[in-house]
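Researcher: For the annotation table, I need structure tokens for Pre-mRNA-splicing factor 38. Please keep the output clean. Sequence:
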Amino acid sequence: MANRTVKDAHTIKGTNPQYLVEKIIRSRIYDSRYWKEECFALSAELLVDKAMELKYAGGVYGGNIKPTPFLCLILKMLQIQPDKDIIVEFIRNEDFKYVRCLGAFYMRLTGTSLDSYKYLEPLLNDFRKIKLQNRDGSFFIKHMDEYVDDLLREERYCDVILPRIQKRQVLEEIEQLEPRISALDDDLDDLGESSDEEEPMPVEVPSRYSSSHRRRSPSPIRDRYRRSPSPKYRRSRSRSPKRRRRSRTPPRRHRSRERDRPRSPPRSHHHHHSKHHDDDSRSSKKSKRSKKDKGDKARDFEIKEANELRAKLGLKPLK
């Protein structure tokens, strides 16, 4: 008796409202502790208090498929079928975000395509964060506009198959729904006006980046390597005394390298031969000088004897 739908409830989508939730998940909800303790004999007035106590949204979780309190309250709303005005107040409530989530989910399940777009699209401007529970029991953060967008687009959400609704484009073509105006359009218009007022100055492309210039003249790097140095620069380099000193001074070598370097091989025979030849030339020069000196001395001695003899005879001496 406690799990039956109220007698005066209207059928939704041609069936019992509770049948919108699958039978396996529905039986898990009936067996859950939250359904038995918190949802027993719950009326539409008391449902608001339970919705305000919600801390997160989600479907079922865990290995034994436990339903969340959010899903239990959804099934309770399908069972008691509150008035549409109460659901609209749930959606318009700005103080409790999970009350809004509960009302949006119920409106998506039971409302027509026109009601779903009419009441859920204004919630796309709500950017508050909400907490949802995964199938494995972990939690993740989502925004309210993402939650509502998933309700309008997805076929299954929070482990409940959502009824099909018509495309918005079809409702616009039959003039049942006006074209949607986004809240960001005003900001985009303001941004466009500010960009028109601040027109950027035209940027002139330098001639060196033109294609014709690229074909005619080579790159400056290649041109630098193609040019030969000026004669003035060459002359200054050749005449600089520092260059001469550097070229004449032998490079210094490390002592370790000199130690590791093998000793020079013995001098060749040609070197000894040249040395002996130099010694012979020096000795021949000395002998020639000594012979010349001896000849001069002998000649002087002969002139001296001749002069002595001529002095005895009373003749003039020889020069």
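Researcher: And a one-line annotation?
Model: Residues 17-182 form one domain.
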